[in-house]
Amino acid sequence: MLGCLEQMNESPEVTSGHVYVSHWPNPDLVMFENMAYKSLTDYNIPPSVIFASCSTEKLKMTLEKSHLSRFTSSPEILVGDPRCFEIGNEITKSKGNGLQVTLQSLPYFATVTDVTKLEKHECPPGYFIAPLRLHDAVLINTMWKFGGNPNSLKRFKNLISHSLTAGVYYQDTDQLVSWGLIAEYGCISMLHTLECHRRRGLAMAIVYHLTKTLLDRRRTVFCVIEEENENSRQLFCKMGFKIFSSDYVAFLYTSQS
């Protein structure tokens, strides 16, 4: 949640909206609705992030009143406590609106806890690193496994225009071959290298560049890693990130049942 708030402060075109806090201080339920994200897409409900340490009963009651009860069509997005998956399907089933909540991914967190352990990596000869260019959104949208649609293309164009990004380009052709960016939630995301340019340390150069930029701005450095993505886990561990393999975040969306 801190990453969302930091992103909202620095890139309001990407992340801005409403924050719900259960009580203060020490809230056990915080929900953020991203109005900036909604304005780009055909979502009816603002894509939301939920942090909860409260009981399942309290979480369900809050979602029924404030968010999931408004799900009437597809697609919609919710990110947060893994319990939202089962709760969401209970709510949509009781509403009888023909929707189901689908688990898109269930990654865990990794973060830099000791900056002295951050491993430095620069681009190898023949490559250079620079902010992503607007036309790069087409390639990124094509390569992302959840992309290939108008909503995701608009999203990437907006992130490239207003968020922190890094691309590695092949010097001879000026072609984008590796990339990463800071997503709406404030995390390092979309890390990818084209197959023919792998094993050259390009992804590590991207991670180091983004991490250093965030640290210089006194921002929180973290990423989310899908459990089956062993290559990402090894990369971030080698870079000096600490893995929290028991702290999961659910990326959920609605679809017609």
Automatic annotation (TrEMBL):
Residue span, N-acetyltransferase domain: 127-257
Transmembrane annotation, as ranges: none
Matching PROSITE patterns: GNAT (PS51186)
Any one Gene Ontology molecular-function term assigned to this protein's record: acyltransferase activity, transferring groups other than amino-acyl groups
Domain of life: Eukaryota
Pfam families (UniProt xref): FR47 (PF08445)
Record-given protein name: N-acetyltransferase domain-containing protein
